[in-house]
Design a protein that fits this description.
Elements (H helix, E strand, L loop, with lengths): L2 E7 L2 E7 L1 H18 L5 H5 L3 E4 L9 E8 L7 E9 L7 E6 L3 E8 L3 E10 L11 E4 L10 E7 L11 E7 L4 E8 L2 E8 L5 E5 L7 E6 L5 E7 L4 E8 L12 E8 L19 E8 L4 E7 L5 E7 L5 E8 L5 E12 L3 E11 L12 E11 L17 E7 L6 E4 L9 E3 L6 E5 L5 E7 L6 E9 L4 E7 L4 E8 L5
């Protein structure tokens, strides 16, 4: 009669037959010679050792499996123990476990979706080891990710002017049944995304409006991430999507109100640095609010006077992605990563953003367009009540420094002390500069009678409390200019 062992998977039992007489015939010669040298007869090895392989309870949402094995005990009284051999190739075992004198063993951390081969030997008190038993194999089931739901977001930014690579961001809302919807932004284009995750956590999305676009999704085994591979027919970008980390129960430490400057960063001494590349020699700005749940909202103006707004989500490592479309049909964009962290005396966060402005015949400034990197710097903003006024949040005395913007020379304008209620500052020179600071938002508004035409030109910006300064732009005749608000005496 043949000896039978079983393989049980997911509650069903399958049987495979092995001939013990066949095993015995194959092994008898070698075993007899071996045992004769020891002057012993080992009936267990002549009869063969029969293995029973049982697939134990496994959690298929993980990347590893567990298996239990059992085999017939040898009737020889001198048996000291057994060794279990296993590996990914038949007859070639990379691992061994000494289970001592027991006929049951468990093997854990087997890789999901892989084939494993097992065999057993016995050894006696003299240390003599038998030949291998019959071999059994197991195909571990592939890992199946858990079902997911919630909001997922991520981005992949090349941040290299002129690069042919993709600057893409993806947002998805996944429902309980695996249905998902959202949007993908690629450079200055945006398209909706809809579909349904299959039971194995995958999905492929095709776009009618963009036939060359493809999007492949794979839910991570942790249940908190989705890997996305996006292609536009020329380039491919891998985007890692994650869920929101923060909530009211797990509030973000970075929560609060900030002001942002978008332009040439302040130098170590506090003075503004020159603009880089073809970008405007001025500074954009924004107000930023980070919620306790990690929500990010910002709105402001770029250095060419273009208004913008964006929403995002703060990640666990304290950064958020910014990707917003600009100039409507012209398909410009601002994209990059911003990290929120305290650099004492410098900023409360920073990042590099790729700014693309396509050519526009009717644009008020920079009609030929440009592309380049813009520096973002953050400063926490502590609101002041109207009774405290602007004096409570920025040092005095101050000076306004204006450059570029069709000025023939740099203007340095000492300013009067702001009035407590309105935050208004007046130039003490002949440039007829007027600005005011909103004590609850930090926004700077004002005007300059431009020397070139004698007309008032708008000034816009924000104060940067981290440095006791401010930055923004003013409208020139053909270009914008840089506006900086600095203490007359730099703080130590």
């Amino acid at each position: 009669m043949p000896t039978v062992f079983g393989v049980a998977t997911k509650g069903k039992r399958q049987t495979r037959q092995f001939s013990s007489s066949g095993i015995a015939a194959a092994l008898t010669g070698r075993v007899k010679n071996y045992l004769q040298k020891c002057n012993r007869t080992w009936r267990a090895f002549a009869a063969g050792i029969c293995i029973l392989l049982i697939l134990g309870a496994a959690t298929h949402s993980t990347a590893s499996e567990n298996v239990s094995l059992a085999w017939d005990a040898s009737p020889d009284a001198d048996i000291a123990g057994y060794r279990l051999y296993y590996g990914n190739a038949s007859g070639d075992y990379s691992d061994v476990i000494d289970v001592e004198n027991t006929t049951v063993a468990s093997v854990s951390n087997l890789k999901a979706g892989s084939t494993y081969f097992f065999a057993v030997t016995a050894y006696n008190t003299a240390g003599l080891e038998s030949l291998l038993s019959n071999e059994v194999s197991l195909q571990t089931p592939p890992a199946v990710p858990p079902k997911v739901k919630g909001r997922f977001s991520g981005a992949n930014f090349q941040n290299v002017p002129g690069s042919t690579g993709l600057n893409a961001s993806l947002e998805l809302l996944v429902s309980k049944g695996g249905l998902f919807s959202g949007r993908i932004m690629v450079g200055g284009s945006i398209t909706t995304v809809r579909g349904k995750l299959s039971p194995d956590g995958t999905a492929t999305v095709l776009f009618r409006s963009q036939p060359s676009w493809t999007l492949a999704l794979q839910v991570g085994l942790d249940g908190n991430s989705i890997s996305a591979v996006f292609g536009d027919g020329l380039s491919v970008a891998t985007i890692s999507l994650t869920t929101a980390t923060f909530s009211r129960a797990n509030a973000a430490l970075q929560a609060g109100t900030y002001t942002i400057t978008l332009g040439s960063p302040f130098s170590a001494g506090g003075e503004p640095s020159p603009a880089s590349g073809d970008l405007p020699d001025a500074s954009g700005f924004a107000n930023l609010v980070i919620g306790k749940n990690g929500s990010v909202r910002l709105a402001g103006q770029l250095a060419d006077a273009q208004a913008f707004s964006a929403v995002s989500t703060l990640k666990a490592d304290g950064h958020f992605t910014l990707h917003t479309l600009l100039y409507h049909a012209a398909k410009g964009f601002l994209a990059g990563d911003i990290s929120v962290h305290d650099t004492p005396g410098i900023s409360d966060g920073d990042g590099q953003l790729l700014w693309l402005k396509p050519p526009q015949a009717k644009a008020p400034f920079y009609r030929d367009g440009f592309e380049g990197m813009v520096s973002a710097q953050l400063s926490r903003f502590l609101k002041a009540s109207p009774a405290q006024g602007a004096q409570a949040r920025i040092a005095t005395p101050l000076a306004a420094i204006l450059s570029s913007g069709d000025l023939s020379a740099v203007l340095t304008c000492p300013l009067s002390t702001p009035t407590v209620m309105s935050g208004k500052l007046l130039s003490t020179g002949d440039e007829r500069l007027r600005i005011s600071i909103n004590p609850t938002s930090g926004r700077i508004t004002g005007s300059l009678l431009h020397p070139a035409d004698g007309k008032p030109h708008a000034i816009r910006g924000v104060i940067f409390q981290k440095r006791g300064a401010g930055a923004g732009y003013f409208r020139g005749l053909k270009t914008t200019g840089r506006f900086d608000l600095l203490p007359l005496t730099q703080p130590n």
